[in-house]
Design a protein that fits this description.
It is built from 14 helices and 18 strands. The strands form five sheets. Strands 4-2-5-16-15-6-7-14-12-13 form a ten-stranded mixed sheet, with helices on both faces. Strands 1-3 form a two-stranded parallel sheet. It is of the alpha/beta class and 397 residues long. The longest helix is centred in the middle third of the chain and has 24 residues. The protein is globular, with a radius of gyration of 23 Å. α1 packs parallel to α14, α6 runs parallel beside α7 and α12 crosses α14. The protein binds NADP nicotinamide-adenine-dinucleotide phosphate and magnesium ion.
């Protein structure tokens, strides 16, 4: 059999621990036998990040800007314990944070659904994707305790000396106070990323804030989205047969729970934090969540939403077999290959991505799965270790 040929390489970002082991197995068993895989390889494993003083992370983000599509393995974000474990020169920043800042991206998280594992919300038939704005609001707040009676004011001093002043509250006794901000530029990037992603997956886009209460702050989000939609995307959405609509966050929650799923829900930073955990849990398992970072210029970085599964890795190091779920990492690869196929007009590569995903789902639906899914499964099934699961997928493929 001749292998599927690629035109442009994927940016391949290798990672750490259990997911690094799965990474090599996924490539060897599920991809390389069928695809003449072209990648530009960056080793984001912690030892190599430390050796290169984290330059490799920056290089991999720049490569993504240049080539357009990346696939990333989960990586360790160092903490004090990792400093000793890996004898690090510095407590390097989260690679995801570095890459997100360089690509100015928005993160989209979507669950992978299989028959046999039922969402807690019975009406949900298709995945709900959360698009979370990753800048500002309460994550960049300034807050203080108010010791006693006095006036709290909001003051803006322009570079030209202009002053804008508003009273927040006349305190009669002790209390608390908080200041938050956001930027037109960041909201604009967020909006572009959401519209582009909706077009790329051909799903409706919902956006919700609390603009009836926050008449200036949240309203600015609503206005920026609407302006950008009207100027840049309305015609494209109509041509793709999809819809953009804005609604209040409380109305959105009610609609989401009653919906069948199959849309993208764009949320402000805090709402996205809370709602993505709610949606993930209601759909089933963290090991079945995919994540894609989309830049406003249309670059894509695919990964699993979970981490390096450290607890399993320590057992693996002791020579034990682990039943770590590789599905989200497989879907990171299929997502990246499909996007590469789309951009390079390679229908065979796109079809391969579909088949790889189908083989994975078929394997689970035939009753063969890792332990985490076996716990959620209704009926009889066989829980296998990671390698046996990957081999079962390879057979289907
Ligand atoms: P984690 O790796 O997501 O694992 C937490 C627990 O969730 C595991 O112990 C396991 O539970 C379960 N789990 C997660 N993924 C699974 C899978 N694929 N198959 C089966 N079970 C799975 O989170 P963590 O332990 O908090 O973090 C470990 C490391 O990952 C940290 O160094 C952190 O910095 C890093 N991290 C990286 C990313 C990223 O690169 N995107 C994201 C998050 C965390 P049981 O042990 O009960 O089986
Ligand atoms: Mg959270």
């Amino acid at each position: 059999m001749s292998k599927i040929v690629m035109k442009t390489p994927l940016v391949e970002m290798d990672g750490d621990e259990m997911t690094r082991i799965l990474w090599a197995d996924i490539k060897a068993l599920l991809i390389e036998p069928y695809v003449d895989l072209k990648t530009e390889y960056y080793d984001l494993g912690l030892p190599h990040r430390d050796e290169t003083r984290d330059q490799v992370t920056i290089d991999s983000a720049n490569a993504t800007k240049r080539l357009g599509v990346a696939v990333k393995c989960a990586t360790i974000t160092p903490n004090a314990q990792r400093m000793t474990e890996y004898s690090l020169h510095e407590m390097w920043k989260s690679p995801n944070g570095t890459i997100r800042a360089m690509l100015d991206g928005t993160v989209f998280r979507a669950p992978i659904l299989v028959k046999g594992v039922h969402p807690t919300v019975r009406t949900w038939e298709q995945p709900i994707t959360i698009a979370r704005h990753a800048y500002g609001d309460v994550y960049r707040n300034v807050e203080m305790k108010i010791p006693g009676a006095g006036k709290a004011e909001l003051v803006f001093t322009g570079e030209d000396g202009q002053e804008i002043r508003q009273t927040v509250f006349e305190f009669k006794g002790p209390g608390i106070l908080q200041g938050v901000h956001n930027l037109d530029a960041s909201i604009t990037s967020f909006a572009h990323a959401c519209f582009q992603y909706a077009l790329s997956v051909k799903q409706d886009l919902w956006f919700s804030t609390k603009d009836t209460i926050s008449k200036t702050y949240d309203h600015r989000f609503k206005d920026i989205f609407q302006e950008i939609y009207d100027t840049d995307y309305k015609a494209k959405f109509e041509a793709a047969g999809i819809e953009y609509f804005y609604t209040l966050i409380d109305d959105a929650v009610a609609r989401v729970v009653r919906s069948k799923g199959g849309f993208i829900w764009a949320c402000k930073n805090y709402d996205g934090d809370v709602m993505s955990d709610m949606v993930a849990t209601a759909f089933g398992s963290l090991a079945m969540m995919t994540s894609v970072l989309v830049s406003p210029d249309g670059q894509f970085e695919y990964e699993a939403a979970h981490g390096t599964v450290t607890r399993h890795y320590y057992r693996y190091l002791k020579g034990e077999e682990t039943s770590t779920n590789p599905v989200a990492t497989i879907f990171a690869w299929s997502g990246a290959l499909r996007k590469r196929g789309e951009l390079d007009e390679l229908p065979e590569l796109m079809a391969f991505a579909d088949k790889l995903e189908q083989a994975t789902l078929d394997t689970i639906e035939s009753g063969v799965m890792t332990k985490d899914l076996a716990l959620l499964w209704d009926g009889e099934c066989t829980a296998v270790n990671s390698k046996a699961f990957l081999q079962a997928i390879a057979e289907k493929l």
